[in-house]
Fold this protein.
Amino acid sequence: MKQYIVKIKSTRHITPDVLQIVTEKPLHYKFTPGQATDVSINKTDWKEKKNPFTFTCLPDDSFLEFCIKTYPLHKGVTNELLKLKKDDELILHEVFGAISFKGEGVFIAGGAGVTPFISIFRSLNSKNEIGNNKLIFANKTKADIILAKEFKGLLGNSFINILSGEEAEGCFNGQITIDFLKAYVNATTPNVYLCGPPPMMDAVLKQLSTLGVNRGAITVEAI
Ligand SMILES: Cc1cc2nc3c(=O)[nH]c(=O)nc-3n(C[C@H](O)[C@H](O)[C@H](O)COP(=O)(O)OP(=O)(O)OC[C@H]3O[C@@H](n4cnc5c(N)ncnc54)[C@H](O)[C@@H]3O)c2cc1C
């Protein structure tokens, strides 16, 4: 299987536990918004450990960008990524992914599950096609909201935040429920895009079914 070694151009925290990593882009390396690749670290003992991460840049950018939630306590790949700096190397693999834009609709993300939607919304914006798309973004606290300013700028009032761990101005409080969802989604919603941790996805899929959303209208990917 093909591998691409790329140097890191920069790393920075965009929330307390999400790292944005920008790397070189291999020549002729192509993806569509929403797709991902397996990434490993080009260091002894880490080359074989592959984890999937989603491209958050635009396909035409001259660099690649990832937004990666880090888990220092797991002592795994994301903890190791925290130690990397400019000019350290990552190994990228083939491009894959279940989520792609199929038409206007409601995007529902939990935490790092927003990553496929970053490239999709940036791409829609670059074509002036944000339209009536909505993003419902579930997090624990306001500080955890990835790229909050950018999404607010792109989507305005169609950027809807719900926080389970605190009350904050401009955000709903609690977890996603049918009562909450029914303000945004019904049986005629043409597309629902759902990405998040498996327990959240299971709960929301049941709620969407209760609200009469056709399973064929739902695009899902677990993170
Ligand atoms: C298609 C796809 C795209 C994805 N894109 C992104 C993305 O863009 N951004 C993103 O942030 N994530 C993304 N993910 C998720 C991401 O791949 C994993 O969540 C992440 O790699 C886990 O990091 P880690 O350091 O725990 O992993 P690993 O290096 O796999 O470490 C896991 C280690 O931690 C241990 N462990 C597991 N759970 C616990 C726990 N609760 N407590 C203690 N130890 C534990 C395990 O035993 C294992 O040894 C994506 C997933 C998929 C499937």
The chain has five helices and twelve strands. The chain has a mean pLDDT of 97. The CA atoms of residues 43 and 68 lie 19 Å apart.
